[in-house]
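The authors assume throughout that readers already know how a fold can be written as discrete tokens. A single example would do more here than another paragraph of explanation. An entry of this sort, consisting of the sequence and the corresponding backbone structure tokens, reads as follows:
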Amino acid sequence: MRRKWLAVALSMAMVVTCMTACNNSGSSNNSSNNAGKSSNSGESAQVETVADGGGKVLNIYVWNEEFSSRFEDYYPDYDKDKKMIGDVKVNFIQNANEGSNYQDKLDKALKDQDSADADKKVDIFLCEMDYVNKYTNTEFALPVESLGVTEDDMSNMYDYTKDACKDDDGVIRGVSWQGCPGGFVYRRSYAKDIFGTDDPAEIQEQVSDWDKFKEAAATIKEKSDGKITILSGFDDAFRVFSNNVSSGFVTEDKKLNIDANVDKWIDMTKEFTDNGYNQKTSLWSKEWTAGMGKDGKVFGYFMPAWGINFSMADGSGAKKDKKGNYEGGSYGDWALCTGPQSFNWGGSFICGAKGTDNADLVKDIMVKLCCDSDIMYNISKDTQDFVNNKASNQKLQDDGVTSDFLGGQSLVEQLSAAADKIDCSNVTPYDQGCIENMQAACKDYFLGKASKDDAIANWKKLVTKMYPAVSAD
């Protein structure tokens, strides 16, 4: 259910006028999660078509090279050498995502959109799942219908990716080329040694719910003489729990909330740490990544497709040849099963910016990269990205396309089933800050340096400092 309190926050944002006040990822003056929501966004008949302004520079705001690489390799009208689409120059404006940096820079650019020179206007901006509805609940993100993207164009998308980009009135204001369902990625050689098989169906039986997962953790520790752990660190299972909550981190009256499922993650992680079922690493640290290498001693990681083809492929220690193929390390010694629960982790969404003077190009990019089944088939076939297109994924299965990293297993077959079960209705605009600070604050509890109550109190302090509009009580 979309949160109606966002509409209340909108009226507040209209008074303050500055979108940086609604930054949801670290800005100290955050007082609202909305600004300038369209008054006519409820009925599709009321959505006016945005006229193309004949712009000569296409400005695209991103935080890394993920989308730019997809664009450069798969948007058919792009001239890589000239960095042009016809007579339009393509300009990627990249700002790192750490803390509030990316959103702060984007917020300022969107706020200044009306007064910006034609060549400086934002045309497209990218959002992550953790904060996409901060932007899609404002008129800064255009209804995709106003650009000419139709329901028929989006018919092959997974429902949750469309729901994530809807405003309070159900109007879609962004699209994504990727889906991010996840599973449990485990080491084949360790599975054979410990469980006598590396077959995904049989390993799934060992980890099909959290009680079995704990039993498997104990078995792995016992049979490896404590050398191998089922997980690497504190944060590994977080997204599985947080994506299966019945309530969000922030309530409708803007109070902090810890869902029962997040509380279970805290308790289970403490138990796993005390019992030696993890290696006490933190997400993205070099120690966490080291467990993916040839000599790594981690049994498995909870990962979406991008975590497999980006993080784990690089972390495996394999070398990439001139053709882009990986060889060596632990590459190919992994397999994928569902694990205790289906979950989603991440997702990048393309939004068309209000005030763009390249509306026709924005529409064409959305349709070709996010709706064209043939293009999306090639993206997945070449990169192992899981695309947001049911027809493409079915063809990948029918054609027997498999993952070399997963030892010849189909990535698509496993994740497609999970994608239909994902529910992102409890995502709030504050999730990035709530999640990052939850993981940081609980670390002292897991290490025995603080009580659970003290860790939660510290989390509330960190989040309310980041988002002054949110109350701890």
The chain has 19 helices and twelve strands.
